[in-house]
Design a protein that fits this description.
LysM; single chain; six-stranded mixed sheet; Membrane-bound Lytic Murein Transglycosylase D, Chain A; 2 domains; LysM_dom_sf; lipoprotein; binds zinc ion; two-stranded antiparallel sheet; about 30% helix; elongated; N-acetylmuramoyl-L-alanine amidase activity
Length: about 260
């Protein structure tokens, strides 16, 4: 995935340019029924790529994008509908400067060092269209997996605005859990999907009375697959899959 760049040079957080090193990622959604990226993201007048970007994003005729000094909020990325109706990701701030994304809680703010998070907004629609939800969800998972790899972050450091608020480092908002809930998902599901992309394997330590078919059943895989993944480490598995020892650490597909 290659995110298009349309930096919001006119936004106050871009001008403030407070430096940050990310320690995690916050997932937001916009809280208004408008899935188009052009609502929030428009190039500056002097952006050398202005024409191409407007073609890609579409033109906001209301002049109310977030590329204005009077808008006291920002995000590093936006996910939503491009002009052609497809779902895409646009980077709106460099990831080494703070965005004004999550406000402040009683303990402080994840906008700033030493807790600064990369933050992105998903453009909400009416929250009832499964096709749009699935497209932006998958795009968001991919974005997080890439950022985790790039900045050596753990998928467990990906949280929602709501979770950041509960921890005391953000304003009291419900995003994006309220949207996930409509499709019977949670942030735990989201993090698991990010983890699947960053590391498709998980580990299992053999305990007393385990056998391979029991482990396979429990982890929704097959004995043959476990043998294939682990016979380099435990060569006897090939000749005798019936024999496993307590304490062995088996590599399994993450499900
Ligand atoms: Zn939010």
């Amino acid at each position: 995935m290659k995110a298009e760049k349309c930096f919001l040079f006119g936004n106050g957080s871009y001008k403030a340019a407070e430096k940050m090193v990310p320690v995690g990622i916050i997932v937001h959604s916009t809280g208004a029924d408008n899935p188009t990226l052009k609502r929030y993201v428009q190039p500056s007048d002097d952006d050398p790529d202005r024409v191409a970007l407007l073609e890609k994003l579409g033109v906001n005729r209301y002049g109310n994008s977030w590329n204005r000094a009077s808008v006291k909020k920002s995000a590093h990325f936006f996910i939503g509908k491009l002009a052609d109706g497809s779902v895409g990701t646009v980077q709106t701030l460099p990831t080494d400067i703070c965005c004004w994304g999550c406000g402040r809680g009683k303990k402080g703010s994840y906008n700033y060092a030493p807790h600064a998070h990369i933050q992105f907004e998903i453009c909400e629609d009416g929250l009832d269209d499964r096709e749009y939800f699935t497209a932006v969800y998958n795009e968001a998972v991919k974005l997080c997996a890439e950022l985790c790899r790039e900045y050596s972050l753990s998928p467990s450091s990906v949280i929602s605005h709501r979770e950041a608020a509960k921890l005391g480092y953000a304003s009291n908002h419900a995003d994006i859990d309220h949207w996930l809930r409509k499709f019977r998902l949670t942030m735990a599901d989201f993090r698991r999907d990010v983890a699947k992309l960053t590391d498709p394997y998980t580990e299992y330590r053999v305990v007393r009375r385990d056998n391979l078919s029991k482990i396979a059943r429990k982890h929704k895989t097959t004995v043959a697959r476990i043998v294939a993944l682990n016979s380099d480490r435990y060569p006897t598995l090939k000749s005798n899959p019936g024999l496993i020892r307590v304490g062995w650490v088996l590599k399994l597909d993450r499900v």
